[in-house]
Design a protein that fits this description.
Elements lengths: L8 H9 L3 H25 L3 E4 L1 H5 L1 H4 L2 H6 L5 H4 L3 E4 L6 H10 L8
Parallel strand pairs: 1-2
Helix pairs in contact: 1-2
Length: about 110
């Protein structure tokens, strides 16, 4: 056993790409929980589009289309009929823009 605190998402990605059995289990759990969260948002707010950020940008080949299939397990068919789950088109700036959106005072017209 190694030091689990040294494992970050980049380590998991490399291991998944090497088809490491444990990493594949962790990855499947991650996708399952992500899909569950998107399903909850879909059932509560019925969005047309759910936009995902950093991981979806950098690991698209590992996420799509499996994630979209999983989302449909957690939301009614009717709610998913027109739902699109897509990576952001803002690229690597999404983290910075998200931080700025949180930092700006609400209701000031600056956000």
């Amino acid at each position: 056993g190694g030091d689990l605190s040294r494992i970050d998402f980049a380590c998991i990605e490399r291991a998944v790409r090497r088809h490491d059995r444990y990493a594949l289990e962790v990855w499947d759990d991650f996708l399952h929980h992500l899909a569950h969260g998107i399903g909850i948002v879909t059932m509560c707010y019925n969005p047309r589009v759910v936009v995902l950020g950093t991981i979806a940008i950098h690991m698209q080949d590992l996420i799509w289309p499996k994630l979209e299939g999983l989302v449909r397990q957690f939301a009614w068919k009717q709610a998913c009929r027109n739902l699109l789950v897509r990576p952001t088109q803002l690229g690597g700036t999404i983290g910075d823009l998200g931080a700025l959106a949180l930092a700006l005072p609400a209701g000031t017209g600056q956000g």
